[in-house]
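Two records follow; treat each independently.
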Amino acid sequence: MARFLTRRYAAVTWAEAIRLAALDGTPWPEIQGVEEAYLLHREEWWAWWSDGRLTTAIGLPESLCSQSLSLDVIGLISGVWESYAGTLACGWATLARLEQVLSRERLPQPENTHGYDWITLERLTVRFTDGSEGVFQCWHKGYDEGFECQMEYLESGV
């Protein structure tokens, strides 16, 4: 399956990519295309592909509805995707390898929030799909316009 990305949309055919590019003003030469990328998981706002790319799901046909990621992974990816974080410090591929969150430990809020209204820190112990375990630190930073969620991979082999 092919995948095409405009500034705001994803498509699986060139014809649909051209139609969507007209909607968001993407010049044809700027449409990003990949010949072999298979949809592994799709949520309302994002899609995970076989080439390790996380993209918008807006524009994809409703008939494409693969569901290969665990509920824990879906929640974590959605938390970052829906925030103002943009990219993920630990990488989307690392997060997609998660099978389960084994435990969550709430950490004390730092005294200095560096201009944010609030900060929440969590330490997550996780199990990956290969059976190994690891630890992530997750933080949410809130302010008037919204929030930022970020995750950092701290260690493996816990």
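The next record belongs to a different protein.
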Amino acid sequence: MATIRRHWKAFLLSLTMLAVVGCWLLFSNLSAVPAIGEEPQADTNQDANEAVQQIDPGTYSQIQALRRRLSLANEDLAAMGCSKEGATSILETLLSWHEANKENLDAAGHSKRNAAKDLRQALRRVNIGPRDQNVLESLPGLKSAYAAAVQSEGQLVESLVQPISSLLSDGQQATWNATRKNAGLPSPYRYLSDLSSSQKAGLTRALQIRGRKLAYSQDSPGELPSLTDCLSYAQKSELEAVRTTVNTKMPGVLKACWLVFPRPEGFVRDSTVVTSE
């Protein structure tokens, strides 16, 4: 005891340091345990190992354009009822097709752009002048060349339809057919299988009116035209069913898209990739 009384300051300092170290170890261990009701964090390394190799921005942009053109966007796949595995198979098929046909696709796009440029320049000279009989006589040939280039590119893209169709069930094929047929309409209306021409015209007109009102009178657009007045009860029920399917299947589709088409770092959505002519 006499020794402790003589060195009480050093003894107290040692006890304090031991207490601090003990508290630090305790809180370090507690912080590694998830709180009650909290989900453990996912193993991101495992997900990263699953992902396909990174795609360059140009290829990514081309593939996304193909998906929009063929009605194979994420929401379209979800509306078809695709699971994560089903969406993965479709997207991998699309990627394989693109790898095999990239040169032909680039060439077809190059020809279409050149034909469009030639036709646009000729029309500009006709409309602005000076009058040139040779330019007037060249117009039919330029229009035919542009139409042929568009058709050639379209046939190439359509060659992807059969491989995709082979992966779909009858119900998924029916939804995809309706989606492509109604491609000009927004979701979920483009997924309706039995829209008549008059119904599509009515929906298009209502959308245009709504767009104008919202664009010019954002604060008080007034009464907006209904988009469902032209639909039957069965079609309205189908819309609700499609919405439910999309909400249910979308997480799996997004996961498949991330695995097959990881977005390139720094990629800007809907950016236009300019290729050398």
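Discussion point: The chain has a mean pLDDT of 80. How would you locate this feature using only the token line?
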